[in-house]
Amino acid sequence: MTAVRGQQSTVISMVKAKSRNYIIDMKTGFYNRRFFNIRLREERRRTERSGSPFSVLTLDISDLADLIEKRPKLKIHQMKKVITNVIRENTRDIDIKNWHADTTVKILVPETPKPGATILAEKLQEKVNDAFRIFFGLKGVFDLKKNMRITSYPEAMEDSGESESKPSVKKKSVVSPPIRWTWANKKITRPHKKTKGRNK
User: Fold this and answer.
1) pTM (2 d.p.)
2) Cβ distance 3 to 72 under 8 Å?
3) Does residue 171 lie within any of the structural domains?
4) How many other β-carbons are positioned within 10 Å of the β-carbon of residue 190?
5) Distance (Å, rounded) from C-alpha 127 to C-alpha 146?
6) Tally of structural domains, the chain
7) What is the sign, positive or negative, of the torsion defined by CA atoms of 159, 160, 162, 166?
8) Is 148 left (phi over 0), alpha (psi -120 to 50) or beta?
9) In this predicted model, what pLDDT tens digit does every residue of 146-197 receive, in sequence order?
10) CATH number for position 150
């Protein structure tokens, strides 16, 4: 019995490890792009059904490449590692983090409207700049307005016209008035002609 339980626990561990490798980018420790996009679609559907808010933070450090060129000892992978650690330490387990490119990282923050996402963005700006100052001697190089973008839902869906209810509403309001007006004209004109005929 002990041997069977041991084999079962080994199988379970192997399945968990395989599942983890399927959704995790082993180079960064964040979720891979495929899993990020799956979760993004799920959150959008949930927002369409219930109006529940969520936000996506996009961090872009491509402009920091100029600093790397000026400092030969500074490498982009070192910056990525520092930013990865800062994000991991200052976000929740339910937040979906993913390096979309060498210089772009995205954070999906469920159940968080724009004010909450803005607070997180300001916190990340402070922590990233502190880390850059400590490890690289760089002061204030990571700017929230320049290096970070916040997209909040359902506002973003409404602005882009992606809401499922909008097209149906527009079709009803455009199609129905001409039909009613046409039949109303017929009802008005027919009795009017008959009245004239009787008077003659």
Assistant:
1) 0.70
2) no
3) no
4) 10
5) 16
6) 1
7) positive
8) beta
9) 899 999 999 988 876 654 433 333 434 333 344 343 334 444 444 444 444 4
10) 3.30.70.270
